[in-house]
Amino acid sequence: MEEALMERIKYPNDKLLQHEEQHTLFWENFNELVADFKKDHSSLAIVKTINKALVDWFINHICKTDKAIGAFVNRR
Fold first, then answer.
1. How many whole angstroms separate alpha carbon 37 and alpha carbon 23?
2. Distance (Å, rounded) from C-alpha 37 to C-alpha 60?
3. Cβ atoms of residues 20 and 3 within 8 Å
4. What angle do CA 41, 46, 51 make, to 5 degrees?
5. How far apart are CA 11 and CA 3, in angstroms?
6. What was the pLDDT predicted at 57?
7. d(Cα 68, Cα 16) in Å, to the nearest integer?
8. Got the DSSP string for 11-69?
């Protein structure tokens, strides 16, 4: 969805590709964490790791990268 918007607004291609890669890496990592959780859901370490991954994603991706897309749209 974001990538379709980025294409439609002519967001710089290098940033679009970087954005797609960030999503891919996040989901690969998150799916591994979920698999680990399903194997041993009682592990506090896994729960903390999942929590950290989600917080990092929110802070670094949503609050920075996605916000930059909004700023790009507002400048147009």
1. 21
2. 23
3. yes
4. 115
5. 9
6. 95
7. 12
8. --HHHHHHHHHHHHHHHHHHHHHHHHHHH-TT-HHHHHHHHHHHHHIIIIIIIIIIHHH
Reduce the DSSP state of residue 70 to 3 states and report it.
Answer: helix
Task: With H, G, I as helix, E, B as strand and everything else as coil, classify residue 25.
Answer: helix
Q: What residue segments make up the domains of the chain, in order of their start?
A: 2-75
| Cβ count within 10 A of residue 19 | 19
Q: Note if the pTM is more than 0.85.
A: no
Residues of the chain with pLDDT under 50: none
**Centroid of chain to Cα 49:** 15
**Amino acid letter, 70:** G
